[in-house]
UniProtKB/TrEMBL annotation:
Family: Belongs to the adenylate kinase family.
Catalytic reaction equation(s): AMP + ATP = 2 ADP
Notes concerning its domains: Consists of three domains, a large central CORE domain and two small peripheral domains, NMPbind and LID, which undergo movements during catalysis. The LID domain closes over the site of phosphoryl transfer upon ATP binding. Assembling and dissambling the active center during each catalytic cycle provides an effective means to prevent ATP hydrolysis.
Protein name: Adenylate kinase
The keyword Protease is assigned to this record: no
NCBIfam families in the record: PRK00279.1-3, PRK14527.1, PRK14531.1, PRK14532.1
Amino acid sequence: MTNIVLFGPPGAGKGTQAEILKQKYDLVHISTGDVFRYNIKNETELGKKAKLFIDKGQLVPDEVTIDMLNDEVEKHPNAKGIIFDGFPRTSAQAKALDELLVSKNTSVNAMIALEVEDEILVKRLLERGKTSGRKDDADEGVIRNRIKVYYEETAILKSYYQAQDKYFGVDGVGSIDEITQRLSKVIDQL
């Protein structure tokens, strides 16, 4: 299996690129954002818990996130690999993901981070907010808090994966095709 953690701050283009890479490499794309939205829309217990945090631009607690992710991984027992989009976000989640994948006789092959400047992220998210209907994309204060939380709490994962020689930073600015080519170059070398 080829398992990739696609990483980057909110608005970096993870969802767009994950969909392209999913098709190109025949991988399963698991977006925690999509999983959260599904659970919230369907008002599951996990969804109700997650919504309280998402609406404030905060991270959803690990146990809620991991429970949702495990349910999603279980739906794809014969996958050639998985693109994890938006997970893990903390060292504890990274360790939990490692344990989950080991229990399925596989592991993370690479963490690929899309790197984008903050002001570009804010602009992208406000633009997305005009059409997405997502409350967390429409308020600049919430957006800036999400970016701040990313740097404070999740950027530490860079060192976690660097220690395993699994971290790859990729420039996330340019055309969709240019960014896809940069990502493919990394994946093709795994």
